[in-house]
Amino acid sequence: MNRPNLWSEGREILFEDNHLLVINKPAGILVQGDATGDEPLSKKAAEYLRFKYKKPGEAFVGVCHRIDRPVSGIVILAKTSKALSRLNEMFRDDKIHKTYWALTGKPPVPETGTLIHWLVKDTVRNVTKAYPTAHGQGLRSELKYELLGPAGNRYLLQVNPVTGRPHQIRTQLATGLNTPIVGDVKYGFIAPLPDVSIALHARQLELQHPVTKEAMTFTAPLPDAPHWDTAREYSK
């Protein structure tokens, strides 16, 4: 399959060098394979590289972090084992600065702040619960947020997770601020979006290149989806 016709530079392919492949993931695609058997981003990337460089065998693609299936935005994939091991360490040590944009149905109160919860993942139901104080096996989770402004009848929040936990932004906004993300019925929004995505976008990543040590910032354009139209003015 002609993967380069599906992924274009500047839109899906944000950056590529010998060690990194940075992709603006569309909502609805898994980053890594699971029990569904659906083709994940990692497999699509391997096929893209194999086709582009006319590789006779499998291309190396290492997954060092994930964003949820219904979430869009930046995913960094490693093209070498050296980059993969160093990226894994950087994500584990919270040395990569992550910025997300989220649309909510009402403004947060207060408009800026820090949320700290202890998150417990129910792997059977694939849902995370947030507790305000230390709880059992709960993992301490922290994020910073600010209201960027109204976006039509929605509100655009900028979120910077300090830690990286499963469903962290989704459950912390819903529990800590009572502002579930638009379309996220799993965490309390009233109705799904037509494309069953949620209005959460991994907007920007700032990091030191794992091999060259160069300071890098990647920014992902918003999806071509109607629910993001009123937020586009903030990306100019």
From TrEMBL:
InterPro entries according to UniProt: PsdUridine_synth_cat_dom_sf, PsdUridine_synth_RluA-like_CS, PsdUridine_synth_RsuA/RluA, RluA_PseudoU_synthase
The entry's keywords: Isomerase
Occurrences of domain Pseudouridine synthase RsuA/RluA-like (ranges): 19-174
PANTHER family in the cross-refs: MITOCHONDRIAL RNA PSEUDOURIDINE SYNTHASE, PSEUDOURIDYLATE SYNTHASE RPUSD4, MITOCHONDRIAL
Family: Belongs to the pseudouridine synthase RluA family.
UniProt-recorded name of the protein: RluA family pseudouridine synthase
